[in-house]
Amino acid sequence: MDRSNLGPTLETPRLILRPPVLADFDPWAEMMADEENSGFIGGPLVRSAAWRGFVGVAGAWVMQGFSMFSVVDKSSGQWLGRIGPHQPEGWPGSEVGWGLHKTAWGKGYAIEAATATIDWVFDHLGWTDVIHTIHPDNTPSQKLAIALGSANRGPGRLPAPFEASPVDVWGQTREEWRARAG
To answer: Furthest-apart CA pair in the chain: how many Å?
Structure first.
């Protein structure tokens, strides 16, 4: 069953961003099982634990009307990762987060998808602020946050079961985002 009707489809020059579909689970589980790939995004996870995260993202589309998008390469149809709005119970703010399969790293996909997503959350969800929770050792994500125009606001705290994981909260206001784009 195609569940992509749970939310919008966004397009960039190279990417399609859409709600996850069941066919995305195998590459999602592969990404989450790999230590290098998932170490800063809650992994590594066994397949059954990855499933719970996957259906949580899909379920957030139903419950909240937004969630992370699956990022798909337009030319090949390959699933590249997930990027998008994320606001679980107890989260320190309205986040646009990301996690790409390591085969997609270093190709500019993250900034392309995150830019489209931040535009969408400000324009369609009416958010006035966006954050990114980033582990202090996650230099690539820090560089992406800087490229997006976000600033490090200092240490944050995630809800259980992630409360022991150190994070810095990066972010910017809608006005800062629009001034950057202008």
So the answer is: 44
User: Residue 128 carries which side chain, given as an amino acid letter?
Assistant: T
Q: Does residue 27 have a cis peptide bond before it, meaning omega lies within 30 degrees of 0?
A: no
The token duo for 27 is 């590459």
Asked if residues 87 and 100 have their Cβ atoms less than 8 Å apart, the reply is no
31-73 pLDDT, tens digit each: 999 999 999 999 999 999 999 999 999 999 999 999 999 999 9
Contact predicate 141/180, CB 8 Å: no
Q: What are φ and ψ of residue 158, in 5° steps?
A: -95, 155
| This prediction's pTM | 0.96
**CA separation (Å) from 42 to 1, 10, 30, 85?**
28, 26, 13, 17
Whether the link from the prior residue into 44 is cis, omega within 30° of 0, is yes
